[in-house]
Input
Amino acid sequence: MTKRSASDHSALCKPWEHQLSRRKLLGGAALGAAGAMAGQDLGGLGLGNLMAAAGDGSLDKKHKQVLFVWIDGGMSQYESWDPKPNTQFGGPFRAIPTSVPGIHISELMPKCAQQMHNLSIVRSMCTKDNAHSSGVGRIQRGDPKNRGVVYPFFGAAVAKFLGSGPSGLPPYVWIKPGSGGFIYQDAGFLGPKYGALAFGDGKPPQNLLRNPEVTTADDDLRNEFRRKANARFAADHPAEPVEAMDFVYASARELMKRGDLFDDAKVSAKDKERYGTHEFGRHMLLAREMLAAGVTFVKVNSYGWDTHGDNFNGHANLMPKFDQSFAAIVEDLAAMGKLDDVLVICLSEFGRTPRINGHVGRDHFPEAWSLITTGTGIRRGTVVGKTNDVGTWVTSQEIDIGHMFHTWFAALGINSKQVEYDNAGQPLPLAHDDFNLVKELLA
Amino acid sequence: MRRSVFSTLCLVLAAATSCLLDGREVSAAEPLSRQTDQHVAKGYSGPKAAQADDAEFLRRLYLDLVGRVPTVAEARKFLDDKDAAKRTKLVDALLSSPEHPRRMTEAFNTMLMERRGENEDWTKFLTKSFEQNKPWDVMVREIIDPRDDDETTRGAAHFAVNRLSKVGQQDTDYPGLTRDVGRLFLGMDLQCAQCHDHLFIDAYKQVDFQGLYTVFLNTAIRSDVKFPALTENLMTKKMDFQSVFTKEPMQVGPRVPGLKEISIPSFKTGEEYLVKPDRKTKVVGVPKFSPLEALANELTATDNRAFRENIANRVWWLAMGRGLVDPLDQQHVDNTPSHPELFKLLGEEMKSRKFDLRSMLREFVLSETYARGSRWDAKAGARPAAATYAVAVAKPMSAEQLFHSFVTATGPQPPDVNLADVRARFITAYANPPKEAEIEFAPSVKAALFLSNDSTVLELLKPKAGNLVERLAKQADAGAAAEELYLAILARRPTDEERTEVRELAAKHAGDKAKLYGMLAWALVSSTEFCLNH
Output
């Protein structure tokens, strides 16, 4: 058998769960400075209590959609949207010019560089959680004030406010590697029906096609009887399981009508080549089809970004695939005119440390990182926020995920300062009540 | 220490005779089922659901004890029985039926293997164990320290071997095996304590993890036999480890969390082995000191409170749908059980009953707590929290329970039906992904599509040789058909409204009654009422 040492961190406790060790790495002085800045009010930037033009509480007539790209594990801002070449922590990669004069991004993203006029970068993200296990949920829930309830993920919130739209398809779809299923936990207090429908490995669910033995009329009849039975049961039993069951059957029936979405033969060879035949490319291409079909919220996950070891080879390997597929979908959405209706968001649970560790890796870094957003309601071709010369902290006002949630709700035409959730009588704000939207990001 | 001095003192007294708390008495002379009810009643004064009616109790009991719904004949017999003792009689009949070991095998297979795939030797071990009602401590000793000389128990090694097998690029998962031993046998999820003391749970120390870990690191999968088996290396010294925070060097030998370390004996050079390993003849070495054996004995000792309380909590959870300690693998001093005295009592009972799971389960299902109704009238206010047990918690049905119930409800199945194939399809559609505990009700689009379109499912809903749909189609009176339909699938008689509805549909679709009843049967097996054990 292989000899192992007791300090071997294999599958269990992940090094990124070591908050304390990370703080030691960061160094006391830098931490102090970052901490002091985190306490500042954003009013200094003139963001106090501003309402965007779009944020008048009414929904646009045209159905809005969202593409949410989740880079799980933490993309390095140095190797992507906020390069610091030839500096202490900059790493080996250069910065290259983009289609917007004056904006430079990492050389690992030549294709995204050509789409920069369609994108906006936020370089001043400063958030609070450096653990994957909690950070993924905190970021996707918008990290609101703790009121003892479990907030919905952004996808579930959008599913609630925007619904299925004219397509009737499940409103919150998640294309991910691995297994699929119905991820009702994402919905938090909104209730299971706003959970995510996950397509494992981007594959169509088994039994997608209607069995020819059952006619549409028969299927309607048997489902009508099923719904009646469920309604009777719900009269004196908890409503949540019944709602979840009704939702999965309703979704299944809509999907059965759209088997063509998963028809590989429909996709042109050229598109497959443009997006890439790798997993992320295939999933992004399916996301484009889902958006074209009218799905309200499409989330795509890319895994494997937790580069505690060998960060640079890791990013040299991962970034080109990301670059190819992300640039392709942005280009397509722009060409289809869909960027006016589709809000695009691309982020991780945090960025990666300036310090390069003993394994030539970068660790978790929520204090100064970047995300990308564009599409409906968002100003394009711009950079918001700044980090210092070596990327160790944010020198402009720090932006929390709470600010971004207000901004994104506004971009979708939802005034998050007026609209509230109603959690069985308990009014709850949509996003962190101490924060406001980021005005510079809105078109 | 959150427990008050008073209640601790009281528990000491309880062991002697009885304990007066909140003015109510819990008497140790009473059967455990009654003591259970008294403990649950203490400290809760809010509204309660009525006791379950016969039909609700019947269905719940069949699902919990034999893993399926009752047949129409079984349901009728029980519902029409006037015997006041019929519930107790049914409990004993089901506990002694051959279907009970099958149900326990399926429940424990899911609990212990968490959908890592089926294995014949392992299934045989579980089946034989539950057929004999083998004490839990014996079972766990066989799992932790598997022997290769008994064909009926050696499959127990699958628990470790499966977890240590390399899958794709995944390395041999010694930490995962260590974690699961803590979770499943001690109710302690030590995941975060591998590299340092747990950051949020003070009771979980790094040494707790490492003391188990060193035992499993010393093992390897045997490749010289076809059945699952482990071999141990020679252990001569303690393992070095350090916290990633303090970097202070530490050492530990085999050790059960919370207990004293097991000392590693030393032997003269050349005398360490019972069987010396020999590469030439491929003889697998057997050291005189077996850390697995030592660990298995210490872990399952009756004095190991975490061990006996974990299994008490898990059997309770199987019956009641919610652990007294919740989540099941968060047993520690800061996660107070919903009913601390009851929790302690159940652990003591495990000890005095010598880990006889069947006798514990019998007491649980004979309690009023178990027989609490699941219906709640909204006019009575908000539904009480699950932890009060004032209203029954609806349990998700496992893939196996759904399979057995489906073929029972739509049957009897003609001999040409390939039940193994149907079972495999149900498990694919309804089981969780591998390594995910099945605790929550998680309906999926995948399962909805399966039940809607799978040809095998639809085939069983066609009239054939005495099966449900054929009997219904032949029934002249639609009201009688409605009764048989509801008894077969939901183990209850239809309400007047439901009976009328079936009558109207039958009149409307008189031309093809078999098709109609096939669709109605489909609707009821896809209903929430069928998919929950309430």
In short: The radius of gyration of chain A is 22 Å. Chain A has one domain: 21-206+258-441. Chain A touches chain B through 62 residues (CB under 8 Å).
